[in-house]
Amino acid sequence: MLKPLAAATIAISICSSAIATEYPAHGITFVVPFAAGGPTDTVARAIAGPMSKSLGQPIIIENVAGAGGSVGVGRAVHASPDGYTLSVGNWSTHVINGAMYTLRYDLLNDLEPIARLPSAHQLIVARKGVAANNLSELVAWMKGRTTLVGTAGVGSASHIGAVLFQSETGARITPVHYRGTAPAMIDLIAGQIDVMFDQAGNSLPQVRDGAIKVYAVTSAARLQTAPDIPTVDEAGLPHFYVEVWHGLWAPKGTPPEVVAKLNTAAQDALRDPLVRERLTALGLSFPDALDVSPASLGALQKSEIAKWWPIVKSADIKGE
To answer: Distance from CA of residue 320 to its chain's centroid?
Structure first.
């Protein structure tokens, strides 16, 4: 006769296998922790269609904004671990927020990584009137005065990029926080602020129109859509990498077979030519196939927390 604990373990295992075999039996929800129309929402909607086709069920996008994305992530964390409510997030929501906010969940222990998704790198840009023609000249220019640097808000990627730049170069900056990158870009074009560390998809149209200056992209490789822009390594600031990568997570305890099905569907979506064309045109970069696995996303998240939390905490950046 089986002991009660052994019997319970077998029952749970059988139940989990049954769920995984049937999965998905109905629609799936992607919780995007920002308002519709932003970069993370765009990535989620781009992969939702192909993933829905692979899984044979509809995928609904639920935008749950608030507290830098922590409200939406919490919504997914506390959902049933059955694979039907998933968290689509990024470097900010699944790394930086842990150093800025007192969260009611653990970013590493309360989520199951599913797949790494495309990344957005930053462009270092300035208003047209800045008297610097390359990155080295920009650093010197910023050391000689207090520079107004526009951000998308406290703790945003543009804010963290500016803080890191100040730390590594000795530039003197005063952050000017906006509610998003759009109003910050308006003021940069108008000359009301001096510099931005902005996601490429937002800045590239203004660069191409000649409305602002561009100095480098914060990655080791040039952008496919803007190969004329040098990398930070080429421009004289080696390894100044700021990468707003995206990912897909499930609540902790989601059956591994379900995670595997979702990962396969995500890989199918990332290979879709229309998805690649659409997101590449927006300045996003795709991870290598080997980096899309749940283990790779988990390892990336852990290493990024080790890298960025000390930077955020030393700068005393707190969520508003």
So the answer is: 19
